[in-house]
Design goal:
The chain is mainly β. The protein has no helices and 17 strands. The chain folds into two domains: 36 residues, no CATH class; 161 residues, Jelly Rolls (Sandwich).
């Protein structure tokens, strides 16, 4: 017996919450890339699906990755590219990125960018944000960006490039469940993937993962 093909159901698309909703109403917020539903109660609608590690995007505010964990300081090897899971809770635009230098490195830079994923690991480069000097302590940021991101898993990346001595960046001592090992180990905190040998512009694909590590923390401004 043949099984009839099912027709696709298309939800009502809107850029604002409907003024009147009833229990079990479902709609698509095109401006946020979210499927919303009503439970019949007043106020915020339900969001269907995972909300990610940035569950609430506060427009023009800064969101830190990893989003939790005690602050510490990490020594950063030259040309190591760290990839931090970045999963916005809704469609947004990256307008700036930053890290905090705790030990300055003369002649050294920080390079930032963002990669797409296959749902688990970094894959194709979405944007190379360029570099900022790591030669002074404090917050070092790149502003004036305009990179749209969908409410799916991305990886925000940061690398130290140049310099011959030590560079210190603020990190957060924590695990991230999205970051997984290829063998059973509990040796230390792992919240990012990494690869080495990235001395210039970011490669078009992230390439083979060298391992997992406790990464320097990065903060990202979203609208």
């Amino acid at each position: 017996m043949s099984v009839p093909l099912l027709s696709l159901a298309r939800l009502f698309s809107t850029s604002t919450q409907p003024a009147v909703t009833a229990e079990a109403d479902v709609w698509f917020r095109g401006d946020r890339g979210q499927v919303n539903a009503s439970d019949g109660g007043a106020g915020l609608p339900l969001t269907i699906g995972p909300t990610g590690n940035v569950p609430v995007v506060r427009s023009t505010a800064w969101h830190t990755l990893p989003p939790y964990g005690a602050a510490s300081s990490a020594n950063v090897p030259a040309d190591r590219l760290f990839a931090l899971p970045f999963w916005p809770g809704r469609k947004a635009t990256v307008t700036a990125v930053a890290a905090n230098v705790t030990l300055a490195l003369a002649g050294g830079n920080l390079r930032f960018g963002v990669y797409l994923s296959d749902g688990s690991v970094p894959t194709t480069l979405l944007a190379d944000f360029g570099t900022v000097s790591a030669g002074v302590t404090g917050i070092r940021q790149i502003t004036g960006l305009s990179t749209p991101v969908r409410p799916v898993l991305h990886f925000l990346v940061v690398a130290r490039q140049g310099g011959v001595l030590n560079l210190g960046l603020t990190s957060r001592d924590t695990w991230d469940p999205i970051v997984s090992e290829t063998s059973p180990t509990l040796a230390g905190n792992s919240n990012a993937y990494y690869r080495d040998g990235v001395s210039g512009a970011l490669p078009g694909t992230f390439g083979a993962i060298a391992g997992t590590i406790n990464s320097p923390a990065v903060t990202v401004q979203l609208t």
